[in-house]
Design a protein that fits this description.
The protein is of the alpha/beta class. About 45% of the residues lie in helices and about 15% in strands.
């Protein structure tokens, strides 16, 4: 091994040892988990609260989860509309736990029919950058002596997110269609607004529990047939029965649009990232929106 490699290696080891014990971070959903991994790196032990493959919206913490949260240094959640249980349990948490709402400072879209805000802010990479700012502040609050370390990691990761935004913006600017037929719940509102797309879905809510009515399914099938759509999209970790039904009736091909709430066990083990997911969505959008 050359001298430069050896010097760099031992410098890294000494740096990590000087940091002391890792701070313990609990993240409620996958984007929060992935953002925290990129900010904390060697300094943090980041745990995803959701078990792999579990749908995020209806999840409630188990007694074991409650113990892990109570003994953590940081709890990262997305907001009242995504994890209402956090507000209920926060009054019982010790002062040693830094609780961070990653939607702080984000102008969220209101769902007038159901009386709450759209929580899926991470689907817009620029809003994801705001979430990363909130994560960074939580790390600094919990571990102020290493402020510079977290700040530098944040800066580097936000640059990657901005590059992701530029790539999506550029590559979607020349697609043939602007209307996405999505047989999932209303998860891509912020993404659609950012990149000037329209999402047509049989769901009327941000929640996947609200099943589409037969009438709305029939209307969507008619729209696909009249518009000559060749592809429809389905959502991760949700039974794609609506998409399969529509595909059977119209002959359209189904493609995945991943909302990044959570990962399968296989994807989590493989180290799949938020950026990987968004780049996969871009690839499928470019494929499916060609005339």
């Amino acid at each position: 091994m050359n001298r430069l490699f050896i010097t760099t290696f031992f410098t890294l080891i000494l740096t990590v040892l000087s940091f002391g014990e890792k701070i313990k971070v609990i993240a409620t959903i996958f984007p929060n988990y992935d953002f925290a991994r990129n900010i904390g790196k060697e300094m943090a032990e980041v745990t995803l609260l959701l078990p792999p493959g579990v749908e995020a919206h209806s999840y409630e913490p188990t007694p074991r989860d409650m113990v892990r949260i109570t003994t953590s240094d940081i709890l990262l959640y997305t907001g009242e509309d995504m994890e209402p249980w956090v507000h209920r349990m926060s009054r019982n948490l010790p002062d040693s736990v830094t609780i961070c709402d990653l939607s702080h400072g984000v102008n969220k879209v209101e769902d007038e029919d159901h009386g709450h805000s759209d929580p899926h802010i991470w689907t817009d990479p620029l809003l994801a950058m705001q979430m990363v700012d909130n994560v960074t502040e939580a790390f600094i609050q919990a571990d102020p002596k290493n402020r510079e370390y977290y700040t530098q990691n944040s800066k580097a990761y936000k640059n990657k997110l901005y590059q992701l935004h530029q790539k999506i913006e550029k590559e979607l600017s020349s697609i043939d269609r602007r209307d996405v037929v999505f047989a999932g719940h209303m998860v891509f509102g912020y993404f659609a607004k950012r990149y000037d797309l329209t999402f047509t879905t049989p769901y009327r809510s941000f929640s996947p529990d609200a099943e589409p009515t037969p009438r709305r399914m029939a209307e969507l099938i008619t729209t696909i047939k009249k518009g000559g759509y060749s592809h429809i999209y389905f959502e991760e970790l949700i039974n794609p029965k609506s998409a399969k039904l529509i595909a059977r009736e119209t002959g359209a091909e189904i493609l995945l649009l991943h909302g990044a709430h959570n990962l399968s066990k296989e994807d989590l083990k493989a180290g799949k990232s938020y950026i990987d997911i968004m780049e996969g969505n871009l690839k499928n959008l470019k494929r499916g929106l060609k005339k």
